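Fill in residues.
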């Protein structure tokens, strides 16, 4: 059963929902906690309502609880490394400090980040992954994510948005395993930590030099974790061959 109708439904809905949110709240930004972050969850819901029976067949099954916990812990480690790299980079470039009313933003960041990942990693990633493999699916989702951010938020910088979106998509795509809700849990936890950390480190305006710092930190972190996953896969394959 082809997943492309569901992919198309999600993409059209997320762009439409993003545009509607911007009409209601013109100040909403895509790189900081805002109502725009609800658009991917809305798109996931619409996609599910249109074809829930087919999606129940196409979406992958669950992995063990142990694997879910392990990958979520790895994701927390990746988020910490990324934020440390951002903090180091921001020491050398001008940037805005966290806003004075930071508490309401932080309180909103966690649920919005979790809702945000329901669409991208909970639904879109596994659908695309079933056809073109994990790496290219992650890159493809990252390209759509970047295009969505650039479309709904005119303050987003082109280079920083594209690089950050693809790098984080690869990182979250490899961290997520199992069913849609397991992938959602892992990605939601990581996104929440990164979102809160970036607000504290760089405020809510990730443009200019700050945008490039976040992009660079995302690429380095994704590369490190991708190498780790590849090494682990080769070791498992070697052990399986030795046992055969």
């Amino acid at each position: 059963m082809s997943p492309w109708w569901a992919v198309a439904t999600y993409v059209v809905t997320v762009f439409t929902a993003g545009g509607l949110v911007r009409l209601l709240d013109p100040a909403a930004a895509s790189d900081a906690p805002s109502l725009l972050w609800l658009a991917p969850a809305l798109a996931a819901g619409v996609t599910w309502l249109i074809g829930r029976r087919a999606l129940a067949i196409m979406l992958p099954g669950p992995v063990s609880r142990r694997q879910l916990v392990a990958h979520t812990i790895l994701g927390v480690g990746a988020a910490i490394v990324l934020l440390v790299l951002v903090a180091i980079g921001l020491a050398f470039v001008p940037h805005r400090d966290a806003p004075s009313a930071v508490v309401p933003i932080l309180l909103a960041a966690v649920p919005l980040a979790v809702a945000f990942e329901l669409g991208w990693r909970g639904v879109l990633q596994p659908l695309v992954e079933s056809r073109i493999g994990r790496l290219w699916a992650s890159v493809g989702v990252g390209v759509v994510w970047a295009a969505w951010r650039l479309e709904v938020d005119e303050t987003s910088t082109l280079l920083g948005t594209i690089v950050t979106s693809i790098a984080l998509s690869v990182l979250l795509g490899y961290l997520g395993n199992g069913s849609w809700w397991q992938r959602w849990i892992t990605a939601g936890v990581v996104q929440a930590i990164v979102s809160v950390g970036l607000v504290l480190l760089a405020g809510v305006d990730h443009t200019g030099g700050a945008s490039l710092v976040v992009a660079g930190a995302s690429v380095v972190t994704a590369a490190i974790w991708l190498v780790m996953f590849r090494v682990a896969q080769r070791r498992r394959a070697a052990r399986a061959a030795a046992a055969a």
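Residues 4-243 form one domain.
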